[in-house]
Specification:
The protein is mostly helical. Helix content is 76%, strand content 0%. The chain has one domain. The longest helix is centred in the N-terminal third of the chain and has 57 residues.
């Protein structure tokens, strides 16, 4: 489900918790709302609020770490492609057609990465035929001197690094919150907001303030879900640097 929809549902549930707390306040006998009862309930809610805050903080840290990891992998792939082209340019005119092939392959290569992440792929990994051809053609180069031999060896190593980074990116599963876990967190938040209105009169000021607090909590959950899917949504990693990594080959 889309992060905005999930976080909006949780926001509405928290508002429902406020209404439930107000309803309970009007239904419970007065001695159930005594000072001792309020202190006991507030201690329990404080424990739940502490657990919820710790969990939200840990989830944000984990989601941000996963986001940075995948963003770093994209940057590494971009740098490797630029370096590979530079090595082939230093090799001489022989791999000119090969460099053109690399430029032609990049758009489909980028599209494939983003589509895999957007659709939460479940199919096994399949190597790109065009990328394999480029790798084999680099290995098939015939160096004429030690310099070209060294450049070819470095180009092959860069290709291996690209393959490894691509596979790591493919196997990265993100940090999306499992629905049962999200349901428990939402339940905790509903209890917290119900307790806020249980022992205080719900006037316009209190309701607006509690609504802002609930919106803040929903925004935190939205941020976690967005960071868990770095190839979609508002925080999507830009594909432009990778698409434009190589310019046209000069004369």
């Amino acid at each position: 489900m889309h992060p905005l929809i999930l976080s909006s549902i949780i926001f509405v549930l928290m508002l429902g918790g406020i209404i439930v707390g107000t309803w309970l306040r009007s239904m419970l006998p007065q001695h159930h709302l005594s000072k001792d009862t309020q202190d006991t309930v507030r201690l329990g809610v404080g424990l739940i609020a502490t657990m919820a805050a710790l969990v939200v903080g840990l989830l944000i840290a984990a989601a941000k770490s996963s986001y940075d990891t995948q963003s770093g992998q994209i940057k590494q792939i971009t740098a490797d492609i630029i370096l590979l082209d530079s090595l082939l340019a230093q090799y001489g005119p022989e791999p000119l057609a090969l460099r053109e092939q690399i430029r032609a392959v990049i758009p489909s290569f980028v599209d494939r990465i983003w589509q895999e992440k957007e659709t939460n792929r479940t199919a096994p990994y399949q190597a790109s035929a065009s990328a394999e051809r480029i790798y084999l053609q680099i290995q098939a180069l015939s160096p004429q001197n030690s310099v070209q031999q060294s450049l070819q060896a470095r180009a092959v190593q860069i290709c291996n690094d690209l393959i490894q980074a691509r596979l790591l990116l493919f196997t990265e599963t993100g940090t999306s919150i499992p629905l049962p876990f999200l349901a428990v967190l939402a339940f905790w938040l509903i209890i917290i907001f119900a307790s806020f209105s249980l022992f205080s009169t719900l006037n316009a000021t209190v309701f607006i303030a509690l609504s802002v607090f609930a919106l803040s909590a929903a925004c935190a959950i939205f941020l976690i879900l967005e960071l868990g899917g770095p190839f979609t949504g508002l925080l999507m990693i830009s594909s432009t640097p990778l698409r434009e990594a190589l310019g046209p080959i000069g004369p």
